Amino acid sequence: MTEQKALQDYLIRLADSDMILSQRLCELCGKAPAIEEEMAVMNVGLDLVGQARNWYEYAAELIDDGRDADKLCFLRDALDYRNLLLVEQPNEDYAVTMARQFFFDVWHYFTLKSLVDASDERIANIAAKAVKEATYHLRRSSEWVKRMGDGTEESHRRIQEAFDLLWRFTGELVTPDDTDHAMFKAGIGPDPEKLKQDWFGMVREVAAQATLKTGAEDAWMYMGGKSGVHTEHLGLILAEMQFLPRAYPDATTW
Amino acid sequence: MNEREPSSVNLLIASDRVPANAHPELLTEDAIWALLDNVKDPEVPAVSVLELGIVRRLSWDGKHLSIDVTPTYSGCPATELIEELITEALRAVGICDPHINRVLTPAWSTDWITDVGREKLRVYGIAPPQGNASKMSLLGANEVITCPFCDSKHTERVSEFGSTACKALYRCRDCLEPFDYFKCI
């Protein structure tokens, strides 16, 4: 794989994970458990859309085949999507929504923190902006994990079940593939070994405060999102997300 | 009959029209800065885009104008609107096609809000960012936020997000008023 190809792939992954998680969060619009939570979840989603756009725009310039950010986002099918499997998992109850957010936020925070020092200036600039937002997201989701874990018997049971349910999708966050190795070698992406340590370190720390058990590092993990092999959920997300631009191509006024 | 359509078309034409008596070449750079100080943030109309600290650079040679604007948040929905408002304000004095660059670096933080801007936020009922954005800790550490209405420090956070991404929702436990806090980021 050439470095240029790896870079394009890496940017699309960052963008797709932001975009799909954002789309998942949007599903709570009008039906979050409380109005404050609704505002919070919509705002987190908004931050992620903004970051996705920045990554898509850069990817579109490098791919340079006439597609812009919108086309990359709305006119690719599931097999071409490169998001993490974790972010396409359904919202379920609020414990699952927040556990998913927390696992993602820890990964997102450490990834962006490393990208701030990327040798590619454009990536460093986008990351410098995004890491502030991710820090805020992480602070919020970790507080929810602690509150639910160390809360009532019912909330503890639910967040523990959410951890157990989603653990199988976390291996992908910290298991590097060719693209991740190529990006690290190019001085762009994070050191895969360090990312793994940081991720487990923070997840364990917060879980301990929340009186929650985490799974084993060597547990069997679902992989494949980063290479386009998704769970059955992604197709449905894209069907909803892409319907309008596909039905009305090149519409400029919504 | 739909009465709204013709008037909105008229509005569009009116805003596109450059005044016949405009002499943009006579404007100084300072005059353009002053003009931008009248462009308000559409979501927080109490402060101008200059007070918010999102206009980074301006260069003007009497013919060509170039402005660097930075978004507050990656997904700030007001970004495009702010650029349009700036363009509109410039067109009104005869500067027809300003070049507006969207820059991401150095990333905006609440530290860029001017002292005047902070005071205007407070008067408007939004608690201005308190402390230094770069010194925020990652986990925990709740800050003490002063109520913009009664100056009490006896306040509590209701939600980490308020009416927009850049604000959090607080409540004063003395005067009982809810208020937005322009959060430190």
Query: Quick one: CATH class of the largest domain in chain B?
Result: Alpha Beta
Which strand-content bin applies to the residues of chain B?
15-25%
**Classification by helices and strands of chain A:** mainly alpha
Q: Please report which band the strand proportion of chain A falls in: under 5%, 5-15%, 15-25%, 25-35%, 35-45% or over 45%.
A: under 5%
Unreliable stretches of chain B (pLDDT < 50, length at least 5) are 1-14
Q: What overall geometry of chain B do the principal axes of the alpha carbons give?
A: elongated
The CATH topology of the largest domain in chain B: GMP Synthetase, Chain A, domain 3
Distance between the termini of chain B: 49 Å
CATH superfamily of chain A: Ferritin, core subunit, four-helix bundle
Q: Quick one: overall form of chain A?
A: globular
Count the beta strands of chain A: 0
Biggest interface, residues from each chain: A-B, 32 and 28 residues
Separation of the first and last Cα atoms of chain A: 40 Å
Number of strands of chain B: 7
* Mean pLDDT over the residues of chain A: 96
Number of domains of chain A: 1
Cα Rg of chain B? 19 Å
Low-confidence stretches of chain A: none
What is the residue-averaged pLDDT of chain B?
Answer: 84
| Residue share in helix of chain A | 55-70%
Any overview of this molecule?
The complex is a heterodimer of chains A (254) and B (185). Chain A has 254 residues and is mainly alpha-helical. Chain A has one domain: Ferritin, CATH 1.20.1260.10. The model of chain A has no long low-confidence stretch (mean pLDDT 96). Chain B is α/β, with parallel strands linked by helices and 185 residues long. Chain B has a 4-stranded mixed β-sheet. In chain B, a hairpin with a 5-residue loop joins strand 6 and strand 7. Chain B is elongated and about 55 Å long. Chain B starts with a helix and ends with a strand. Classes of the chains: A mainly alpha (254), B alpha/beta (185). Chains A and B meet through helix 2 and helix 6 of A and loops of B.
